[in-house]
Amino acid sequence: MKTIVVFYSLNGNTAFAADRIATTLKADLLALETVKPYPKKGFAKFFHGGKAAVFGDEPELQPFNADLSGYDLILLGTPVWAGTFSPPLRSFCHLAKSCLGDKIIAAFASSSGGSAEKAFKKLENEVGYQFSATLHLVDPLTHPNEGNEKRISDFCRALSNGKNE
Ligand SMILES: Cc1cc2nc3c(=O)[nH]c(=O)nc-3n(C[C@H](O)[C@H](O)[C@H](O)COP(=O)(O)O)c2cc1C
User: Global pTM?
Assistant: First the structure.
């Protein structure tokens, strides 16, 4: 099953999860980058990122190959921002929506402790399809937790078991 992991990460936690998932599933990786970067530190990080999430911004992304036609499974990864998914995922969904119809789609999210359920629901609404599986981790890079490896491998196993080759 040809798989791609598409993610946005501001401080590396979602990227860490994306990397582990891509390695386990032997998937390609696509890191979304905004043309105008969000601040990475301090008050500005929460102010600008939080505002962008709350107001449903759709930031311009750095160019990427949006041809997903060769993939069967697409995983979307995002940090939780103000209880929802991060704006670069909205931009990606907008650009790639027409290619998503015949794919299996799953999602993972990193938060600092808050729930990711609302973020998954809202991202599902944005994508227009239900996720086949979801995984929520708490700051897996900056607060490593020994349970994370198992949770990542359980998630990947669930996706592999669902494969229809
Ligand atoms: C703008 C902004 C808003 C955030 N809002 C939440 C939130 O609502 N709930 C939460 O648990 N964590 C929140 N966080 C923390 C991040 O979701 C968390 O640290 C995540 O692991 C960061 O992922 P990253 O390193 O890939 O950027 C927020 C972080 C930022 C920058």
Answer: 0.97
